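ok new one. same drill as before - structure tokens go in, u give me an amino acid for every spot. 424 of them this time. try not to just spam alanines like last time pls lmao
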């Protein structure tokens, strides 16, 4: 059980933090809600107290004998602020402490996650841009806002990400920091708003992740596809964001919620996936091809639905090969120092074992790392768990035992981060 401080600042999205609080408490965490005075204008203290099971105050003077303005930050394992207004970001960046929440941020030495929500003009203002850059340089995880409907009729970037996705990212940050503190394999150090080592070993890095399975149209209602759910790619995107990276996720036919702080580009076919990946990877430090592109597409498609024949015969479909995206981005790199990661879903056949086929694929594709999944019997697809063998072009081999797809994602980024550091 972790001790979590949930800060809430004064924006209309404050009501969404109730769902975030519920996620933390139902996961067994000890949550203390610290709203600002402005936040209490949107959601009252009785609501926070009822949901958290603890008294709630925005003032440093409440329970002053317990020195809450110091103790809350000192004792926290994680601080999350959602929503974080432009005013809160400015105070955190400049070390101002005029209420209980900003005092807590100044004394915290644990991971800090801020989920901004404001109008687009406020988010894009040079002052806010500078404040966010300052906070990130200190190891604070500042989530990119989502795009969508804002207050009133306005739309644009500045919307609070889905609370469920904020929770998933925050849990990723917490698990990673706990693993580091206990000598686990997740690695890395954590940092609060000042003084500590940075949380993100991918801070300042731009990464591209592909996810899902492409579809190749046969007619207006039918397509060739595969069973990829996109869960592993989404776990990779979420993990990279938690580690401080700027993430573009190219998603092929995925129905999962957009990960918090991640730019999502939706595609359908392999050709669309190729175009989106090539465009996004021009200035990327790393590209992880976790999607399952269709190897073939129909030579021609029907503009009308293909009908059944009265004589019971089936139509013939002539296939042609799709472009090999992984080989293309590995062979013709936009940046020579970029790290390219591929995935191999293998079953083994008469020509060789899963490992034999994977090693041959690594050599053929030219990528730096190849994550090998044995998918015999349909394993992995749609599951929340995974296990893999990660082969390196340098001859390395890393076994990742059965566990969550998030755990595998972090292990992949561990290996990517080491290679990026070696090429800097």
């Amino acid at each position: 059980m972790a001790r979590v401080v949930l800060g809430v600042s004064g924006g209309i999205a404050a009501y969404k933090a109730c769902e975030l609080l519920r996620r933390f408490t139902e996961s067994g965490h000890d949550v203390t809600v610290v709203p600002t005075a402005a936040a209490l204008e949107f959601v009252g203290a009785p609501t926070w107290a009822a949901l958290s099971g603890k008294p709630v105050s925005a003032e440093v003077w409440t329970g002053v004998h317990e020195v809450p303005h110091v103790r809350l930050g000192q004792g926290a394992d994680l601080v999350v602020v959602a929503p974080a207004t432009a005013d809160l970001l400015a105070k955190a960046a400049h070390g101002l402490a005029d209420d209980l929440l900003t005092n807590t941020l100044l004394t915290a030495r644990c991971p800090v996650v801020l989920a901004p929500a404001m109008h687009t003009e406020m988010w894009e203002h040079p002052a806010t841009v500078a404040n966010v850059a300052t906070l990130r340089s200190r190891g604070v995880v500042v989530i990119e806002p989502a795009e969508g409907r804002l207050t009133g009729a306005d739309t644009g970037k500045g919307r609070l990400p889905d609370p469920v996705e904020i929770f998933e990212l925050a849990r990723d940050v917490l698990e990673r920091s706990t693993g580091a503190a206990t000598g686990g394999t997740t690695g890395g150090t954590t940092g609060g708003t000042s003084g500590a080592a940075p949380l993100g070993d991918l801070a300042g890095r731009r990464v591209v992740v592909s996810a899902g399975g492409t579809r190749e149209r046969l007619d207006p209602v039918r397509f060739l596809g595969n069973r990829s759910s996109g869960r592993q790619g989404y776990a990779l995107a979420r993990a990279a964001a938690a580690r401080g990276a700027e993430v573009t996720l190219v998603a092929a036919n995925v129905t999962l919620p957009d990960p918090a702080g991640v730019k999502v580009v939706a595609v359908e076919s392999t050709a669309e996936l190729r175009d989106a990946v090539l465009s996004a990877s021009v200035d990327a430090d790393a590209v992880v091809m976790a999607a399952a592109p269709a190897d073939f597409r129909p030579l021609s498609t029907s503009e009308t639905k293909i009908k059944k024949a009265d004589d019971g015969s089936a139509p013939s479909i002539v296939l042609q090969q799709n472009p090999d995206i992984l080989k293309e981005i590995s062979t013709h790199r936009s940046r020579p120092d970029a790290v390219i990661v591929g995935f191999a879903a293998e079953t083994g056949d008469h020509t060789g074992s899963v490992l034999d086929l994977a090693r041959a694929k690594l050599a053929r594709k030219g990528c730096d790392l190849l994550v090998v999944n044995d998918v015999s019997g349909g394993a992995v697809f749609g599951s929340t768990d995974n296990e893999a063998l990660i082969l390196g072009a340098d001859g390395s081999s890393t076994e990742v035992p059965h566990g969550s797809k998030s755990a595998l994602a972090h292990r992949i980024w561990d290996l990517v981060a080491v290679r990026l550091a070696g090429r800097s």
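Residues 163-181 form the longest helix (19 residues). and btw The two ends are 38 Å apart (CA to CA).
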